[in-house]
Here is the input.
Amino acid sequence: MGSVKFDVSVTKGLLEKTPANILVINLFEGVKIPAGATGAIDIALDGLISKFVIGKEGFSGKFGETYVLPTYGKIAAEKVLIVGLGKNKDFNLNRLREVSEKVIKKCQKLNNVKKIISVLHGAGIGGFDPEQCAKAITEGALIGGYKFDKYKSEKQTSKIEEVVIVDMVEENCKKAKAGIKKGKIVAHAVNCARDLSNEQPSYATPTKLAEIAQKIKDIDVKVYDKEEIEKLGMGAFLAVARGSSQPPKFIHMRYKSPSKTAQRKIAIIGKGICFDSGGLDLKPPSSMLTMKDDMSAAAAVIGIMTVMKELKPNCEVHALIAACENMPGCSAYKPGDILTAKNGKTIEVDNTDAEGRLTLADALCYACDLGVDEVIDLATLTGACVVALGNTVSGIMGNNQSMIDKLIKCGAAGGEKLWQLPLFDDYKESLKSDIADMKNTGSRMGGAQIAGVFLQNFVKKARWAHIDIAGTAYLEKKGATGAGVRTIINYLMS
Ligand code: BES
Ligand code: MN
Ligand code: ZN
Here is the structure.
């Protein structure tokens, strides 16, 4: 998995007596005389932290601020890293996850760091539940420690081997252990999604995605090939796939909770365009550059399914991916073509670069035919959503307000921001076609919502939410983020 090579664990013990290369402690903003664990270390270091680091150097405990100092044998750890937790009143589990990410990134830059020990940040003066704190620390460390270096002949990864949370209270350790386990599961799903999405497009083809899905343990998987997709009547999806020499695959993964109680049936759909060249309405080079990421939603869905058997949500989950490439080959679909989706509706192709909604249309029909109660689709769908919300906020829209509200909450709890966009009837106007039921694109203005209104044509009775991750799935600096994974895991578990 990517290259997180270290493990996270907890042991009962005294911080001062535990050997390590780095001991991580913390400080809330504005604290002059540290208490708790940091206070104990300050005393063991003869007041070096309060007198020198805070007093002289002016370390103020601002959020994410770090300071590293050697211990010269006064405690068992070689160095201490003090991290700022920010203002006590602003502190929460999301900030803790971010702090943990920053700490790991800082440690990766230091020399000779193999073993890191850490206090259970947040559980002392912060007053948060030890299990939740350990989960946040673990998630942050494993997500922050991830690097995609598969294609580097010289791996630049650091030598970090283990992160150990140390606490002297037995009960805290027990709770931390449970939290670490949960954090590892979430981080695994996130990093699995990032691995797939970071891959080069000529590796992560529709066939490869199908193969990977089929290898997930304890998940039923059915992969439909081109002939079978034809039989299913997915005329919109097939049209997009036509311009590529890579055959399309429709992937259906199913998880069923072992519990005997009535289960809600949920479908999660991930846009799986393994490369989006724009088709005949070819993208300019600068826009095409990152279009290997156009299967990030499919990657997220696969990442989520790899952890279902460990998380065991009490629901039946159908994960669906219409995987293909959008290429301008000589059989490519053309502007002006009229396609018939699985539900019989006809679509005039206005722009072949609006391909994602065509593949999602057929996937939505398939999901509704399964008789699910709820459908969530996740997609790197529109540049308009990026313009509207930027790179840290995903757009959400749908036909059921309480479902949308719940998803926004689940996102917030996992550190993923979602902002609702409206699906007013006004937007339908610009999708009108003279010769078919609709066109696949309309006005550029309000483009994210117009895409949402388009998708709604393919949803029957189910409650439905559409999440546009075009801005959040892939960042220039970080690469793939695994956007959507934490939101949807929290949603399935709620
Ligand atoms: N995959 C793109 C959307 C996208 C843009 C994702 C930027 C990530 C970053 C999608 O298939 C697309 O090309 N959308 C067009 C739609 C337009 C032709 C109506 C767009 O947003 O420009
Ligand atoms: Mn496109
Ligand atoms: Zn696309």
